[in-house]
Amino acid sequence: MTPEEMETRIVRYGDLKPCRTAFIDAHTPGSDQKENFTIIGGGVSESPDQHVHIKDTPGFNIGAAGQPPKCRNSLHSHTTAEVFYVLKGRWRFFWGRWGTAGEVVLEEGDIFNIPTGIFRGFENIGTDYGMIMAILGGDDAGGGVIWAPQVIEDAKDHGLVLGKNGVLYDTKKGQTLPDSVPPMPLLSDEDLKGFPEPGNVDVVKDHVARYWDMMALAANAPCKVIGETALLKDKPGFDVEFLTRGSIPETPYRLDRHEILMIMRGHWKITWGGGENTLAPGDTCAVPPGLEHSLVPSMSGEASLYRVTNTDDPAGPTWKN
């Protein structure tokens, strides 16, 4: 693999292309300044305007959300995994039918494996533009988003209508639902009974890992963050590890799995038989299966990254009532 070929497998933070009309709440006050990024795979965007950086999926999707202070993402649910870690800023995650069942605040580097099947939302509570990186279960992550009824109703009042086909139509641009496409139906009261309302204790202890705890645990070996035997025990169709300066392999290695490197802090040099490249914070690198390579921080100071690999576990609901 040449350096040029490897570069096509790297999505640079500075090259990310946002979509500002990705979801049904794109015009709703308080949520109308969101930027959605689809890095690997189609993601969950409902807009044809969404740019996809790397289309081939490794069994999961990688995306990101950027928001200014006080901007929030509206309540929705997923049938497959939705994992976030904070790249920049300070974020509040909340959940439940009305977003009042529980909440947790995440700082930079913290990770949250949100239980499937519950309504969740998030907002930037920091003082600057913030960015969270996302790992979404399955090849087709777009098929598993369910909006709380009030989100669909509010959006309609501001010009956006979601069709049952999962596509957004913007009446402000003169768009209307095709005759053959009915609007997305609202969940009934009976439907809503199927969505759990777990409290803080039930969610945080089993689904949140803190950056500095992982830094300590990864002092001598990779810290297993999400997986069957990890800190956050789950089988969402992928494993997540946390690596720092002391936990990288001492010799070149290869995996028989897709390996996605997501840089948190510091600059990292990836070297393989055909060359080398440097990865910076916010960069995402898709290493193909079977490629022998080495990975080292390229300068002194704090260095950390998340490594995501596909597993044979099927993507699907993981929340246990």
TrEMBL record:
Residues 255-301 form the AraC-type arabinose-binding/dimerisation domain. Keywords: DNA-binding, Isomerase, Metal-binding. GO terms for molecular function: isomerase activity. This is Mannose-6-phosphate isomerase, cupin superfamily. Residues 69-132 form the Cupin type-2 domain. InterPro entries: AraC-bd, Cupin_2, GPI/OXD, RmlC-like_jellyroll, RmlC_Cupin_sf. The lineage of its organism: Bacteria, Pseudomonadati, Pseudomonadota, Alphaproteobacteria, Hyphomicrobiales.
